């Protein structure tokens, strides 16, 4: 008598070859972009170490102190304009990222994604490490750190268009919002890990807060080179069903001659102007500009805000700030689930943004009254702020990049993703810049700016929300008529 297979073996063999490849692609791209965000986070943690209230600290024995207020600060951030200098560093990265993103999608459509991602991660690891080495080399030049930020910003643009294009190559539209909502938690996971890793070293040797994340992203670049599979066709797996036109050409997992001819006919990479003409690209891009302005202001300034307002030290402020990203994970998954169920990507984003505005107001006024209130408000604000941001940069970008107007040409994915995220990155650059300029006049004014940005993001989606609501009303009318006739 043949003995039955072990339960674990039965479970493993229940998945098809295609499922294993698709699962591995999700896992690898999740790992890759987690490392991208992990390497961005240290600077927000280290800020509160570069400029501290030195009068509350005991100087080492034998140290000749000329200024009791700044002896422990890192030059050139020891002056009263330190917030402006931090804003300069943030914007060197973010402006370079925003400009580079528009070109990155064009390169991503034309270069092998495996080489492109591997190169980007290795170079990003190099520049992240160089920033940390400034501590050991005792470099006190703002120009050095600004140059490193610019180069790192350019290298980081290789990530997002490439990973979204890769995932879009493997997955169709069915349950895309939920799958990408879970997958997009890599952003928050990377922020959390980056905060925790940087927090370990920030008080003792802040240079290691950059060097360790730099080595991690470089290592993932090596993994990418050896293991990433760009397209299902490369390993004889069945391609995904992107839209109705391609679905009609799919029979038992194979592509018919007619649909293959359509795809072949439109296999050329789409132009920048052509991608802008896809319905919804402009609206979602402008919405993301303001949504990302809010998200990245929190990313770069929340630890310093907590340190200043709640009076936590650098490590505790960094650890507490990770709760915003934990909320972002839940918000991204919920946004994907709701938009899959309702079919309303724009409406889901708009509702979450509308709720985010009053929650930001409440967090600023009551969020620091107790530790429990701070934790609860950070989780809630993180979910409402990052939910729409996550949905637009993943499921919406993938939907638009495989829009039915493209007639099966999925090579638009990288360009569309770059346009949407590139426009959003303009907001990501402006948010921390404005925060640095406005915060000396009071944190209240920074929050008023963030609330205004949320409202503007909603306004840019109003036309698409109206169309979605119209569609729901039309679909309900025939059903109600049929019920009355019965």
Automatic annotation (TrEMBL):
It catalyses: D-glucose 6-phosphate(in) + phosphate(out) = D-glucose 6-phosphate(out) + phosphate(in). GO terms for biological process: phosphate ion transmembrane transport. Residues 28-469 form the Major facilitator superfamily (MFS) profile domain. It is found in: Endoplasmic reticulum membrane. Keywords: Antiport, Endoplasmic reticulum, Glycoprotein, Membrane, Sugar transport, Transmembrane, Transmembrane helix, Transport. Pfam families: MFS_1 (PF07690). Its main location: endoplasmic reticulum. The keyword Endoplasmic reticulum applies. The chain crosses the membrane at residues 20-38, 84-103, 115-137, 143-171, 183-202, 208-229, 281-302, 322-339, 346-366, 372-392, 412-434, 446-466. One of its GO terms (molecular function) is glucose 6-phosphate:phosphate antiporter activity. It is a multi-pass membrane protein. GO terms for cellular component: endoplasmic reticulum membrane. Belongs to the major facilitator superfamily. Organophosphate:Pi antiporter (OPA) (TC 2.A.1.4) family. This is Glucose-6-phosphate exchanger SLC37A2. It comes from Takifugu bimaculatus.
């Amino acid at each position: 008598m043949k003995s039955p297979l072990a339960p674990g073996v039965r479970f493993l063999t229940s998945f098809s070859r295609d499922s294993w490849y698709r699962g591995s692609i999700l896992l690898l791209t999740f790992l890759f972009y987690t490392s991208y965000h992990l390497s961005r986070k240290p600077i927000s943690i280290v800020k509160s170490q570069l400029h501290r209230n030195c009068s509350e600290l005991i100087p080492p024995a034998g140290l000749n102190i000329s200024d009791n207020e700044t002896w422990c600060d890192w030059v050139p951030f020891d002056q009263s304009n330190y917030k402006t200098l931090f804003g300069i560093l943030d914007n060197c990265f973010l402006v370079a990222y925003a400009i580079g993103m528009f070109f990155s999608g064009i390169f991503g459509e034309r270069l092998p994604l495996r080489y492109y991602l591997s190169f980007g991660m290795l170079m990003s690891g190099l520049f992240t490490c160089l920033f940390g080495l400034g501590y050991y080399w005792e470099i006190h030049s703002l120009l050095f750190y600004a140059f490193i930020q610019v180069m790192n910003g350019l290298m980081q643009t290789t990530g997002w268009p490439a990973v979204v294009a890769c995932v879009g190559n493997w997955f169709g539209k069915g349950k895309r919002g939920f799958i990408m909502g879970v997958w997009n938690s890599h952003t928050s996971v990377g922020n959390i890990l980056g905060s925790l890793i940087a927090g370990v070293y920030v008080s003792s040797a802040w240079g290691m807060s950059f060097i360790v994340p730099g080595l991690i992203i470089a290592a993932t670049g090596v993994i990418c080179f050896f293991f990433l599979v760009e397209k299902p066709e490369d390993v004889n797996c069945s391609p995904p069903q992107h839209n109705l036109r391609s679905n009609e050409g799919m029979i038992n997992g194979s592509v018919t001659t007619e649909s293959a001819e359509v795809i072949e006919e439109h296999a050329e990479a789409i132009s920048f102007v052509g991608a802008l003409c896809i319905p919804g690209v402009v609206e979602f891009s402008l919405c993301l500009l303001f949504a990302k302005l809010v998200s990245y202001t929190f990313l770069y300034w929340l630890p310093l805000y907590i340190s200043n307002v709640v009076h936590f030290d650098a490590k505790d402020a960094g650890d507490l700030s990770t709760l915003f990203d934990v909320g972002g994970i839940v918000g991204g998954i919920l946004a994907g689930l709701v938009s899959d169920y309702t079919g309303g990507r724009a409406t889901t984003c708009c509702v979450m943004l509308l709720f985010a505005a009053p929650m930001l107001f409440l967090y600023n006024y009551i969020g620091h009254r107790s530790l429990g209130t701070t934790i609860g408000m950070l989780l809630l604000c993180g979910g409402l702020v990052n939910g729409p941001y996550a949905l637009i940069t993943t499921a919406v970008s993938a939907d638009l990049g495989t829009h039915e107007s493209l007639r099966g040409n999925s090579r638009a994915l990288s360009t569309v993703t770059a346009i949407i995220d590139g426009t959003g990155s303009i907001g990501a650059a402006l948010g921390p810049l404005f925060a640095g300029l406005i915060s000396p006049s009071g944190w209240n004014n920074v929050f008023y700016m963030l609330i205004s940005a949320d409202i503007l993001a909603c306004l840019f989606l109003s036309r698409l929300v109206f169309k979605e609501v119209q569609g729901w009303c039309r679909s309900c009318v025939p059903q109600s008529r049929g019920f009355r006739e019965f």
